[in-house]
């Protein structure tokens, strides 16, 4: 299929502005104005542009790069807040529009999958689970990167005992722009997996643009990029978002109030968390992608500065392996 941009709107000003830009860049532009056209054209488009008049009318945004375009700053702000995707104001953002559309005319490299895990509540061990799945995937021969996007997490490198290892971390990339080359070889490596961690200084968090640029670079070189999203939000570029929910009333209640749209869920059981995973999934109306039990060996490994797998944490290894297979095949 020829690389192209998809525009969904009925606004004549937006249509004209995007048509002129696409024609100047010699990029194929396909315009739709209803839900059927949006659904059928979404997956095949290199870039999707949603008019503010229609952005929230036809349900949640599907996985893939997308932007809201329009002339009203109020409508753009509302759409961005509801959908969690960036905006391009017109006519002031014409330069940004040209940059976005130009990408649709480029040959798209093979991209790996980006999967985000986020916790419905605190203390569910999302960082440990992300690290374990990454290590298991690497042992299976896949190129896997674990990315720390959890605010105030302390650094995912601590989970795998790589806090003193050389390598690039978020403070080195927090203002990245444009397009980056292969980053995986520059990151700390443990067990064949690469880890992009927060720093532990007073450095500001990465900008939204830096996050997008870095995740795109990682997806070009890794088969799977696993994101520890903390309590959210989930990066727009994620192909799959998985909610980790404790098997207790409070965590289930928190999950019911969760804002981010998720694809499926993992249930975390243990002391004080005894609700059956199937009951949790049925209550939340989400696909059950895995269950992770309590493993007494994990805290001891953390104290010793050792990664959660491989080693004596057999239950975690078993549960994380099952989740790895589910994510691989999803």
Automatic annotation (TrEMBL):
A GO term, aspect molecular function: helicase activity
Keyword line: ATP-binding, Helicase, Hydrolase, Nucleotide-binding
Record flagged with keyword Hydrolase: yes
InterPro entries in UniProt: P-loop_NTPase, Rv3660c
The keyword Nucleotide-binding appears for this protein: yes
SUPFAM superfamilies given in the database record: P-loop containing nucleoside triphosphate hydrolases
Protein name per Swiss-Prot or TrEMBL: Helicase/secretion neighborhood CpaE-like protein
